[in-house]
Amino acid sequence: MSSFPKPTLKLDWCSYEAAKYAVKHWHYSRSLPCSKTARLGVWEDGKFIGVVVFAWGANRHLAGEYQLKMTECAELCRVALTKHETPVSRILSIAVKMLKRAMPGIRLVVSYADLNQGHEGKIYQASNWIFVGETGHEAGIMLNSRLTHRRTINSKYGTSTIAWLRKHVDQCARRKEGKPKYKYLLPHDDEMAERIKLVAKPYPQKCATSKENVAPGFHSGEGGVSPTVALQSLTTSN
Q1: Exposure of 207 by Cβ count < 10 A (0-12 exposed, 13-18 middle, 19+ buried)?
Q2: Chain centroid to CA 1: how far?
């Protein structure tokens, strides 16, 4: 048993700038979603180690698929952490509880594990999220020689149709096929839990039994770098 004391963990609502810093340095996407967000900064022993970001509106059909209003369904869209000691499942559990306290109307949280990035969702399995299957196999769209997520393109141009993109942005634009994403759900009330159980499936991979060191979307970077973090009350605007 280790004789080293466990680090002091702190989560608190943080600024857009702090979240942007974390995602740019420690997440493979290097970007925040263009939709409304709620952002939780994470500290160990007073050192800023990353962010957990929830979003609304990035996927217009997400809430409707479960007969919910947009304000009742959030997407866990970024977990961007540098090197840390605390298991990601603990950080995620605290973040979800804080979101629920701040927004009691939330009934469901949705997240995706991207196989194209080597993520299978073991953090969600360790946290008892419900697996409901795979999404499509499109990895994204090659635009200006860069693989870009369809939702990012939609947010910027208002469309992601290949014909339009070839005419107005990049004549070589094309879809890129890839691996699917695994979809996980976390219901927040009994009625929603019973509804989700009807579409639940066995986990696609055996849950990790050791301490999880890698978060969904983890992007390694230098630890101990502290951006100018202006802690603020919860806001759902950029």
Answers
A1: middle
A2: 33
pLDDT in tens, 130-160: 999 988 666 678 889 888 877 778 878 888 8
CB 57 within 8 A of CB 36: yes
pTM: predicted TM-score of the whole model, two decimal places:
0.73
How far apart (Å, rounded) are the C-alpha atoms in residues 187 and 169? 40
Amino acid at site 82? T
Q: Give the mean pLDDT of 64-90.
A: 92
Neighbours of 82 (CB within 10 A): 21
* Cβ 64 vs Cβ 202: under 8 Å: no
What are the angstrom distances between the C-alpha of 194 and each of 105, 185, 190? 18, 12, 6
Residue whose entry in the numeric block shows the structure tokens 């950029």: 238
pLDDT digits (tens, 9 = 90+) for 162-182: 999 999 999 999 888 777 889
Query: CB-based burial of residue 9 (10 Å sphere; 0-12 exposed, 13-18 middle, 19+ buried)?
Result: middle
Point out which residues pair with 53 in neighbouring strands.
Answer: 39, 78
